[in-house]
Known about the structure:
Elements: E1 8-12, H1 16-25, E2 31-36, E3 49-52, H2 58-67, E4 70-73, H3 80-90, H4 98-105, H5 107-116, E5 124-127, H6 130-140, E6 144-148, E7 158-161, H7 167-174, E8 178-182, E9 188-196, E10 201-203, E11 207-212, E12 215-221, H8 227-242, E13 248-256, E14 262-268, H9 278-281, H10 286-295, E15 308-314, E16 321-322, H11 329-332, E17 337-341, E18 346-347, E19 352-359, H12 366-377
Parallel strand pairs: 1-2, 1-4, 2-3
Antiparallel strand pairs: 5-8, 6-7, 6-8, 9-10, 9-11, 9-13, 11-12, 12-15, 13-14, 15-19, 16-18, 17-19
Helix pairs in contact: 1-10, 2-3, 3-4
Amino acid sequence: MITAPGPTLGVVGAGQLGRMLAEAAAPLGVDVVVSDPTEDAPAAPVARDQLVGGFEDPETFRELAERVDYLTFEIELVDPDVLWEISEETDTPVHPHPDTLALIEDKLVQKRRMAEAGIPVPAFFEVNGIQDVLDAAEEFGYPLMLKARKGGYDGRGNAAIYDRHGVEAALEVIDGPAMVEAYVEYERELAIMGVTGEDEIDTFPITETIHEEEILRETVSPARSDDETLERAREVARDVLEQMEGRGVYGIELFETPDGEILLNEIAPRPHNSGHWTIEGCVTSQFEQHVRAVLGWPLGSTERRSPTVSANILGDVEERQEATLYNLDRVLETDGCNLHYYGKDEVYPLRKMGHITQLGDDSGDPTQLLEATREVRDELTFRDG
């Protein structure tokens, strides 16, 4: 029997994902305690408490585990071995399982496991030196995408190679364990938020994701693709979920090629930027769904309420400075438009500071809704005057 107040959930990481997890947990009667290396992190104002400690600090993990009933994480920088040891020591369940985190945090290990499971992925090579890149170029041709095996996000840790002259420069940019992929010519990028519960698997509606400089700018749901292609994407996502151990929400990023083929790009073992639209756009948000799943509670409906576009608010300043967002009245005056500000004290170029969502109706054109959302978002600025 589920009762309120409910259990306490511990979240390793206290960025914007931790903040939105805590916001979703509160109406369910679930308290959240977070840990993060940064004092007064974005999740701190909405969580019951924040512990300050590094992502590989066993003492912080131990204290967090002793104060909560379940553990999860909102960032892949967590050391899965330490997380597993503390979980065993304190008898506090961790979801998704630390083994899943270990699988996903290394992009080469992730790609190998998915390929072995028959999931379609771009062709890839392990890179231990320049010759491996040259061998890949010999087989796939240019361009190539060089990726850091660990730690890359929002374009960091990736380097495109367009010809032989760019190989050394790309290796210098990555400067560590890497892999190289054949460059994918795609029609569009798609994402699916999948969820594994106590005894059920489900997926949210497929979303089209729009990137610039490898940073997510907007999401469009429903995705502007045909039903047959979207069904193939859903099948790939469910196959991916079968490979994951432990409960929770997973962000699954995909490529749709011009001939309708679906290729897996990357997986995140947590709520993901491409699913932020679900807060207003679905019956159950990805964040509430993650809380439910980690606690072993029944999952909520993933049904989409209405067509929805989400647009990220990025730092538009030239250098790091104190953050003040101007022109919020533009959002407040727009019917169906919703603001989510992440509460970060400082802004710098292209830092994710928040997002807006715009709700449409079934009779509208998703492209028009996207353009309208961009118009509102583009009037928001951190520059005074």
